[in-house]
Amino acid sequence: MLWSAMIFGLLGSFHCVGMCGPIAFMLPVDRSNSTKKLFQVFSYHFGRILAYALIGLVFGLVGKGLYLFGLQQQLSIAIGVLMIVIVLIPIKTFNAYNFSKPIYKVISKVKSALGQALKKKTADTFMTIGFLNGFLPCGLVYMAVFASLAMQNAVQGSLYMMLFGIGTIPLMTTAVYLGKFLNSNIKQRIQKAIPVFVIIIGVLFIVRGLGLGIPYVSPAPIADIASNAIDCH
């Protein structure tokens, strides 16, 4: 399932340009020095991926605990269903509930720190901006977090989020260099494609949780494998 993270990030980056694009446009890069600008943009992405990796590490660790309790398959199915339901819920209904309210104060502080960082041009500014950017609320990041929770350990959870972040790099980098370059028609088509992909990923997580014995897609439960091994003897 790790491969889905890169594709998720690549497709999701079109959404990211709309949500986080203003931050990318406002990066205080040195436009007179192309080498320095490239390093600054790289530092920004490194900060974002570092934030995603830490988030994935935490939720992957939670997923490992559920795996040890034998709940990994049920969790995979639940996350797959949740991804599909969230996509199918009308956006007006979803926006009626502020899911970020419990952590509003934390988010407010992150935004404040981000605003201050955008005014600076020190060597660590760009990594700081990227790192703080990684903790801002985003529906697609939440989806990736759900997926990292379904991983079997903290390392895979962190790796999933890192691959998601890497997938967003090409388009986010283009946004920094070219600004608003996509016309509205292309954006609308891409926005319509993203929910379809999320549903596909959700179905894959459900199939994975069913333990149908399909290699790499829906491996059989460990208990069944052990049972078959005992029967062979």
Detailed description of the structure:
By secondary structure, this protein is mainly α. The chain has one domain (2-232). It is built from ten helices and no strands. It has helices spanning 2-25, 34-68, 72-88, 91-95, 104-117, 125-133, 139-149, 154-178, 184-210, 222-232. Helix 2 packs across helix 7 (139-149) and helix 5 (104-117) runs antiparallel to helix 6 (125-133). The relative contact order is 0.22.
| Poorly predicted parts | 223-232
Radius of gyration (Å): 20 Å
- Give the overall shape, derived from the CA principal axes: globular
| Helix share, percent | over 70%
Kindly state the number of beta strands: 0
**What's the overall average pLDDT, rounded?**
75
Distance between the termini: 32 Å
Strand fraction: under 5%
> Could you give a short account of the major beta sheet?
none
SSE layout and pairing:
Blueprint: H1 2-25, H2 34-68, H3 72-88, H4 91-95, H5 104-117, H6 125-133, H7 139-149, H8 154-178, H9 184-210, H10 222-232
Helix pairs in contact: 1-8, 1-9, 2-6, 2-7, 2-8, 3-7, 3-9, 5-6, 7-8
Structure characteristics:
disordered C terminus, mainly alpha
Offer a quick outline of the entry:
By secondary structure, this protein is mainly α.
